[in-house]
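Objective 1.3, modelling of assemblies. Example input:
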Amino acid sequence: MSPEHLVVASVLLPLISAVLVVACRQRPNLRETVTLVSGGLLLATVSLLIGSVDTRPAINLVDVIPGSIDQSAIAIGFHVEPLGLLFALVASGLWIATSVYSIGYMRSHGEQHQTRFYVCFAIAISAVMGIAFARNLLTLFLFYEVLTLSTYPLVTHHGTEAAKRAGRTYLGILMGTSIVGLLMAILWTWQLAGTLEFKPGGILDGHVDPLTAGLLLALFAFGTGKAALMPLHRWLPAAMVAPTPVSALLHAVAVVKAGVFTILKVGVYIFGTDLLSRGGSSVWLMYVAGGTLLTASLVALTRDNLKERLAYSTISQLAYIVLGISLATESGVIGSGMHIVMHAFGKITLFFCAGAILIGAHKTRVSELDGLGRRMPWTFAAFAIGSLSVIGLPPVGGCWSKWFLALGTVEAGQWPLLAALMVSSLLNIAYLAPIPLRAFLCDPADVDRDVSAGREAPLACVIPLCLTAAGCVVLFFNADPIYQFLSSVTSN
Amino acid sequence: MGLFNYWTVIVLMMIGFYTVIARNNLIKTMIGLGIFQVSVFMLYISMGKIADGTAPIRVQPSAGNEAFYSNPLPHVLILTAIVVGVATTALGLALVIRIREVYGSIEEDEILEMDRDS
Amino acid sequence: MNPDQLPVLQVILPLLAAPCCLLLRHSRLAWCFAVLVGCLSLLIAATQLHAIHTSTSGSISYEIGGWAAPWGIEYRLDRLGGMVLLVLTSIAAVTLSVSRRLLQDEVPEDRHHLFFAIFLLCLAGLSGIVSTGDLFNVFVFLEIASLSSYVLISLGRSRRALVAAFQYLVMGTIGSTFILIGIGLAYMMTGTLNMADLSERLTMTLGSVYAEGASIENPELPVNQTRTILAAFAFLTVGLALKLALFPLHAWLPNAYATAPAVVSTFLSGTSTKVAYYVLLRVIFTIFGVAFTFEQVGLQYLLTPLAISAILVASTIAIYQGDLRRMLAYSSVAQIGYLVLGLSFGTEAGLTAGIVHLFNHALMKSGLFLVVGCIATRQSGLTLESIRGLGRRMPLTMAAFVVGGLGLIGVPLTSGFISKWLLVSAALEDGHWLVAVLVVVGSLLAVVYVWRVVEAAYFQEPDDETPSEPRDAPAGLLAAAWVLLGATLVFGIYTDLPVSVAREAAASLMGGGS
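Predicted structure (C-alpha cells):
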C-alpha cells in the first residue's frame, strides 16, 4: 500500500472498528477483541509510515470548498510529516494500552453503556488521526470539531446531573472557542494568505505585519480551547467527572494533545518560526503560557481530589508545550514536540494509577492514600515513575523535554521564563512527590479499618500502567530518535 | 388639483391601513384590508387615464379623426388584482367564521386572552 | 414532450392537477395523483436546469401565447431560477410522498382530496413565481401561492392555527399590496412590466422613455433617479421583506409554522421564504441593478443591520422556546437573516453565499420539520418536556434531528458549514469585521438552542405518562427525513454542485440581468 493510502487507512480504520463494535454489541468478548485488534492494526499502519516521512506524501480526498477563478479549492487532505507522525504514533500506541485498561476498568466497575463508550472512543481516535495527518487548516478544523463532538458522550458517560453540567462546560468552552476563535482565525488566514496548507516555513510570511500576526496568533491560541490556556481551562477539571479511561487517554493524551499539537503545527507550518521570532509576535504568548504553567501548578497544590490535581497538572504541562512554540526557537520547538510524547506517557501512567486506586481501594482523595503503597506496590511504583517524568528528573524521559524547553528559553533570551520553568518544577515536586512517598512510607490514616481494604486492581488495569511507566524510562534512553525526527522539522 | 387622484389614493390607503392595525374586530380588519386594496386599484386605474383619451374600446376611425385611447393595460391588471382581492376577502371572512365557531368571539384581544389561558 | 414547452408546463401541470384532485374524492387516489404530479414537476425542473446548463445564453425562455416580449408575458428561467425551482420541486416531491401518513392525525380523511388540491395550487403558484419573467405575473402567482398557504396553515390541529392563518393573511396581503404599489409605480414610469425590459428602461433618460410630444420637465434625468422609482423600489423591498419574514416583519412566521399541520410546515419552511428571497434577488439585481441599489440608494445600510438583528435576536428568542416547532420557526427567521446578509454585501461572493445558503437551509429546515412530524406520529406533545428520553425511544429520528441541528450550527461536514464559511469569507473580503464576528456569534447561539433539545432527548428521563417502549417513527417518514438531512451531509462534503451553480448564478446576477 502506498503511503497515501496508508494515511487514509489510518483515519478510516478506527471508524470501521466503531461500526464493528456496534455490530458486536451483544457479545462483549468479541466486541473487546475488535477494539484491541483495531488498535494493533492502527499502530502497525502508522508505524509503516515512518519510513516515508522524508518524502512528505500527501493526498487530497475531496474538494470541500470548490475553487473559483481567483481562489484555489480547499480539500480534505492528509500529509505525513514528523510532528503529525509522532503524535499519531503516540496516540495509536496508547490507544491499545487504554483499551486493555478500559476493559479491566469498565468490567470491574460494572459500567453501563459500554458499547457506546467503545464506539465513541474509536471515533475519537479516528478524529485524532485526522488531526495528526491534516494537510490544511480546514481538515484540521473538521476533525477537531469531530473530536469535540465524539468525546462529549464520553465525558457525560455516567448520565448524572453532574455529568450533564460538566458536559455543558466542556461543550460550551470547546465549541465556543473553536467557532469564535479558531474558525475566525482560519478564515482570516485564508483571507491573508490565499491558502490554508501547512507548508514548511509557514504561509503567512510577507502577508502580515507583526501586530496582525500577534492578533492572529491570539485567535489561534485562545481558539484552540483544547490546549487549555488560562482562562479557558475550566473544561479540563470539569471533564474529570468521566470514567478514568476517558480521562486517561483523552485528557492526558488525545484531546489536550490535539490542542497543543494544533498550536504547534500552526506555529511551525502556518506562521513559521522565522516570522514569529523576527517580529516578536509571540512574546505575549510566552507570558500567558508562563503564567498558566505557574498558576495551574499552584492550584494543583490545593486540590485534594486526585484526578483534579492531575487535571491541573495537565493544564500546567500543556502550557509548557505552548511556551515552547511561542519561543519560536529550534530548541523550543523540539522541546515542545518531545514534551508531547513524554508527557503523554507520564500523565497516562498517573491517570491509570488513579483509576486503579479507585477500583482497588475505592479512594479518590490524596489525603486518604497514606500507606496504601504497601498493599498496591505496583500501582504506586508506577505512579512514582510517572511523577518523575512529569517533574522532569532523570532517569525518566520527561527530563529531556524539560531540558530542551529550558534551552529554548535561553536561546530566546527570556530569563524570567527560565525562572518560571524552574519554579514550576519545584511546584511539581511539591504536589506530586508526596503521593507515592506517603503511600510507601507512612502509616495508613485509618488504622482500625479492615486490613483487606485496598488491594491491587485487576491485572487488565495493572499491566498497562506498568507498561506505560516502563515506557517513560525507555524514552529516557531512546530520546535520540525523537530528537532526530523533530530536528528535521526545524531544519527545513 | 392635477394630483387629486393621488391624494385620494393616499387618504384611502391610510384609512385602510389604520383600520387594519387599530381595530380589534376581525371583520373590521377585513374591511380595512379591502379599503387598503381598493386604494391601490384606484392608483392603477387613475394612472391609466390619458388626458383627452377615451375609453379603450376600439372604434372605427371616423374621417380624419384618429381615436385617442386611455391605456387599457392597467385596467387588465386591476381586474386581476380585484379578483385576487375578492379571493382574499372571501378567505379572510371564511377564517373569521371558523374563528367565531371555535372561539366564540371575533374580537382580537379576547381571542388572544383565550389563547394565553389555554 | 416538446422541450420548448417545459417552462409553461412546469406551472400548468400542478395548476390543472389541483382541480382534478377535487374530483378524486378518495383520499388515497388523490394522494397518488398528487405524488405523481410532484414527481413530474421535479423531473421537469431537473430537465430545465440541465437545459439551462447546456444552453449558450445561460437561460431558457418561453412566450405565453406566442406574444413576443416585452408586450407579451415571457417565462424566463436562468441558473438562479433553475436552482430554486429544483429545490422547490424536490421538497414538494419528498413532502407529498409522505403527506398521507402525516395527514392522518391532523386532517379528516374525507378532506384529504381538498388538501391536495390546495397543496398543488401552492406548488403551482411558487413554480410560477420562479418561472416568470414578468413582474405583474410574479404578483399574480405570489397571491396564488400566498392564498393557498393561508388555507394550508389554517388546517392545523389546534384552533390557534386559524388565528395564525388569519394573522398571516392580513400581513401577507399588506405585503402583496405594497408589492402591487411598487409594480404600479414602476410601470407608471417605464411603461413595461417585463423584467428584462424594465431593467433596460430604468437606466434610460426620461426623454427617451416617454413618447414624443410629451412635456417633461427634466428629459435628461435617468428614470431610476426619479422619486417615483425610488418609491417603487421602497414599496417592493418592504413588501418582499414582509413575505420573506425579515426582522422586524417576521411576526407571522413563528405562529404559522408552529400551528400548521406537519406536512405544511415541512413544505412551507423550505420553500415560501426561499421563493420570496428569489424575488428579492430578481428585483434588486436583475431589475434595478447593483449600481442603483448599493450606490444610489445604499440599501446595504438598511439590510445589513436588519439581517444581523434577525440573526442575533431570533436566535436568542429561539433559545427560550419550549415548543420544538416554534424554536425551529425562530431559527428560520435567524437563517433568513443569513440569507439577507449575503445579499446585502452587494458582491459576487456575498451573493454566492446567500444562494448556497438558500439551497442548504431549505433542505435542513424541511428535514427538521419532517423529523418533528415523525415525532408527532408517536406522541402528542412536542415540547422540551415531552421529548425527554426520546433519544432512547426513537433513536433514528433523534439522530436525524441531531444531524439537522449540527447543520444549523454549521459544524464541518454539514452543508451549513459551507454556507457559513462562504458568508464569513465574503464579509472578510469586504472588510466587514464586526459582521463576520456577529455571524459566528449567531452560530454559538444556535449551539445553545440545538443543545437544549439534545440534552432533553438524551439526558433526561421521561415522566411516567409518556409511553416507554421504543417505537421509532414509521419507516417511510424516517426514510424521507433521512433523505433530506442526509442531503445536508452529502452536500457538506461534495459541495461542487450547489457551490458552482450558485457561483454562476451570482455572476450572472451581478452582471446585470440574464
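Residues 115 and 152 of chain C are 7 Å apart (CA to CA).
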